[in-house]
Design goal:
single chain, globular, 39% helix, 236 residues
Length: 236
Amino acid sequence: MDPQYKRILLKLSGESLMGHQGYGIDPDRLNSYARQIDELAAAGVDIAIVIGGGNIFRGLSGAAKGFDRVKGDQMGMLATVINSLALSSALESLGRPARVLTSIGMFPIGEPYSPARAIESLADGKVTIIAGGTGNPFFTTDTASALRAVEVHADVMLKGTRVDGIYTADPEKDPTATKFDKITYDEIYNRGLKIMDLTATTLCRENGMKIVVFDMDTPGNLRKVIEGQPIGTLVY
């Protein structure tokens, strides 16, 4: 493998962790992710990871059902910690050192997050999983991913999804949707594309953080992105 990026922030979808179960964590999907991440780490790539919690609980959907929005978002933060612990366990079972840092105090489940601690962990060769979102309600894990990517000086933010890039419309609903190979931050704004929330996109734009949106659920795609193969969509 010839990595094109030395340090990455990988955003993983909580929903994707469900696999075909419809809820919770599918062991096959979890182990597939772990093997792909382990392959990158073995090639010398520094890997920071943020995982969503939608396979367990989403704050927004909870608020729609009557939960207080702040408490709903806090429940979502806890869901990301569960997913992060699961991924760290799967990586360690492969012999890959992994470390869970949390944006909210949860010792001894995870160590408190700070940019310095995360950078030190990455330099030590540990896959560094940052859980708990930003630690604040009203922010998504997309925004947390953008923030952490900037804080740990990642070369790129990789957003693993269920689709193979950014389209003119939702390809799962519109069969005429066409895919972008590259797209600018401004074009995402102007077209009203809902790739990430606007806070996350703005944070990446203001800090020159490139984003690659790709299909993480197809084994081997993560390696292809790291090698610079033309899959997914580059946002610049």
